[in-house]
Amino acid sequence: MAIIKRFRALTILSIILLGLTWISPDRGTNALSLTGDSLIDMFSLLPPILVLVGLIDQWVDKKVLIKFMGDDSKFLGVIVALLLGGLAAGPMYIAFPIAITLLKKGANIRYVVFFLGVWTTAKLPIVLFEVAAFGWQYTFIHVSVGLIFFYFVGVFFEKRFDPKTLVKEDITSNDK
């Protein structure tokens, strides 16, 4: 019973998917196919990212990260978060392990939230697509408003949450 509670969302979604397949076999088969493809994509991307996060955890000294993204980094923290998020590639679920590692290493929550916002709105491939599809004016307005919004959301999170309560430290953590 404990395993069902732990995987409650997965269990509910699986029951819904099976119910859809029973009610409408064509739609259910299509949904199952899309779900399988998404799982394959996720499981092919996640292991390399977790290895990368592990390497970042081991190779990046905590003092260096605090210097570039800590409480006293000011504008440098914004630039580093902008570069990390803007040059990234891949879906959003890849950004979360990186964000947790940044928090564990002492990055300011403002810059971590800004990094996540940049990942969603201002990644280089997305910006290039928007320029080609919608033009420079739309892209400039969209990215500018998004960056300003996520910066202030980061400021709000910094005032509202204590980073120590957001990240559970484990015994095997090797912070330098």
How would you describe this structure to a colleague?
- It is a single chain.
- This protein is an all-alpha fold and 176 residues long.
- The protein folds into 2 domains: 1-48; 60-176, no CATH class.
- It is built from 10 helices and no strands.
- The protein has helices at 2-6, 8-23, 25-59, 62-69, 75-86, 95-104, 109-121, 124-134, 136-160, 163-166.
- Helix 2 packs antiparallel against helix 3 (25-59), helix 5 (75-86) packs parallel to helix 7 (109-121) and helix 8 packs antiparallel against helix 9 (136-160).
- The chain is globular.
- The N and C termini lie far apart (40 Å).
- Keywords: Cell membrane, Membrane, Transmembrane, Transmembrane helix.
- It is a multi-pass membrane protein.
- Belongs to the UPF0718 family.
- Pfam families: ArsP_1.
- The chain crosses the membrane at residues 75-96, 108-129, 135-157.
Keywords:
globular, 10 helices, mainly alpha, 2 domains, 176 residues
DSSP strand count: 0
User: How many structural domains are formed by the residues?
Assistant: 2
Q: How can the largest sheet be summarized?
A: none
C-alpha-based Rg, rounded: 20 Å
Question: Percent of residues in helical segments?
Answer: over 70%
Mean pLDDT: 87
Cα(first) to Cα(last) distance is 40 Å
Q: Which structural class do you get from the secondary structure elements? A: mainly alpha
Shape: globular
Strand % is: under 5%
Please count the helical segments: 10
SSE ordering: HHHHHHHHHH
Unreliable stretches? none
Family: Belongs to the UPF0718 family.
GO cellular component, one term: plasma membrane
Keywords: Cell membrane, Membrane, Transmembrane, Transmembrane helix
InterPro entries: DUF318
